[in-house]
Amino acid sequence: MKKQILLFLPVLSVFLLAAQCENNDLTPQLGQAFTVRPEQTVSVTDNLSFTLAKLQDSRCPDGMQCIWAGYADAQVKLTASGASTETTLCLGDCRNGSTEPYKTEDSATVTVGGQAYLITLKAIREPGKPTDATFVVTRK
Predict the structure, then answer these.
(1) pLDDT attached to residue 11
(2) Please, what's the b/e burial string for 78-115 (b: 16 or more CB within 10 A of its CB; e: otherwise)?
(3) What is the pLDDT of residue 136?
(4) Would you say residue 76 has pLDDT above 90?
(5) How does 7-23 read in b/e, with b if 16+ C-beta sit within 10 Å?
(6) Which domains does the chain show, CATH number per domain?
(7) pLDDT at 69
């Protein structure tokens, strides 16, 4: 039994190390979806970095019955060539001046370092207690 456990431990260690490396080595590509956690910064191109600065979520948690759907905001920051810009994207009941009743996706065009980019918020996981968000960044 001890021999089996001793043989199992190195295999388990390799899997745990591989999982850790996978989480830390996120390198998204322009036009492809990627998921980030709050305060995480990733390099999208050689000179473009993307930061999920903050997530706020008042959406109704899964499995709950609420009288208001709520909304979730993702504050993001793009940095390129020493310049940076921030914008906020929203999912859910985001009626701040909008007639659209419920957003399942939001996007904004921002210019940073002389280049325009379209940022699309695809999802924010865990309504009511967000853990991460999924985005797509494309060059305009």
Answers:
(1) 44
(2) bbbeeeeeebebbbbbbeeeeeeeebeebeeebebeeb
(3) 96
(4) yes
(5) eeeeeeeeeeeeeeeee
(6) 27-139 (2.60.98)
(7) 79
